[in-house]
């Protein structure tokens, strides 16, 4: 395993040197503060460096997009946060944004234009699939050959933005045994954390959504549940713990699987 320290380019430092990266990589709140999802960010950065993607991050200048505030109904806070972000991006003349969080992707792509923030927005799975297709990323599938993998569709990638093909195309490059859950693509069940549900107590009902979705994943018999969203990762990991299956079933982000296959 490659343990070399990677220097992550920061937008302000590059601009001060007269350089301008092609992409701004938007790390997101989970990628910055959640210990588990930081591993996903590190894996993605390693893959981008390996593929020679020209990118930079905002570093300490990055703030929340305001998505959780808007989903929770605090429109004023959302607009304050969004306008602050738009002003920062205008300062660096940002045109293209890569996100790993589907919630960040959705709000940049579909909601920021209403406030004047118009960008070319790529979800990281779209970028990874593009790198594979143009030959800049040669995936080695040996590590996960004969390993059963199932994929959980995040709501904000799937139903909200119709991103279904790219994650499956990537997974089929990594494993020859990708199994679909009974409910998948536009019929996939939410992990239970979307719409700011992550930040509130569960409402009354017979069963938690994350438990139901975990049961659907376990029913496939897959050894790896592949996710592509920090909220989904948290909820399905909790589901595996609830079912006492965290030792034999792994919940990994797609880019973590890719980084392992490349031995990065």
Structure description:
It contains 11 helices and 8 strands. The protein has 2 domains: 11-128, Rossmann fold; 139-261, Rossmann fold. α8 (165-174) packs parallel to α11 and α9 packs across α10. With 264 residues, it is α/β, with parallel strands linked by helices.
Blueprint of the fold:
Layout: H1 11-16, E1 23-26, H2 28-33, H3 35-50, E2 55-56, H4 67-71, H5 75-91, E3 96-99, H6 102-111, E4 120-123, H7 124-133, E5 149-151, H8 165-174, E6 178-179, H9 209-218, E7 224-227, H10 230-242, E8 250-253, H11 254-261
Parallel strand pairs: 1-2, 1-3, 3-4, 5-6, 5-7, 7-8
Helix pairs in contact: 3-11, 7-8, 8-11, 9-10
Essential attributes:
alpha/beta; four-stranded parallel beta sheet; 264 residues; Rossmann fold; 11 helices; 2 domains
CATH architecture of the largest domain: 3-Layer(aba) Sandwich
The CATH topology name of the largest domain reads Rossmann fold
Q: Helix/strand/pairing class, anyone?
A: alpha/beta
- The mean pLDDT is 92
For the report, how would you describe the main beta sheet?
4 strands, parallel
